[in-house]
Amino acid sequence: MSEFVPVMEFEDFLEENGKIVDQVVYLQPYKEGWTKEYVLKYDHRECIDGSRFYKNENDVWRGWFFSFNEVRAKNFECLSVQGDSDILKKIIMNEYSGK
């Protein structure tokens, strides 16, 4: 992958930047499940399993992010997604690039 884009291991990122990340986007299915037709879509929604995540410690999100207990996030949101990797690319480019 490093042939195409800059790559950094998450452990190295934490060493360089500390244990607080700017944004966590939790990908989840649609609560109502799939419809009869396959439609590429996404929506910012209330967390289905939101009780696992809570605000704590001076207004930062605490949870088990990226398999790390000690990582905190300044911002946290849930995103219901139905689609393929191309829809994820569009979401990142349209909503999160430059943040």
Automatic annotation (TrEMBL):
Keyword terms of this UniProt record: Carbohydrate metabolism, Fucose metabolism, Transferase
Gene3D superfamilies: 3.40.50.11340
GO molecular function annotation: peptide-O-fucosyltransferase activity
GO biological process, one term: fucose metabolic process
PANTHER family the UniProt entry points to: GDP-FUCOSE PROTEIN O-FUCOSYLTRANSFERASE 2 (PTHR13398:SF0)
Protein name: Uncharacterized protein
Species of the source: Cylicostephanus goldi (Nematode worm)
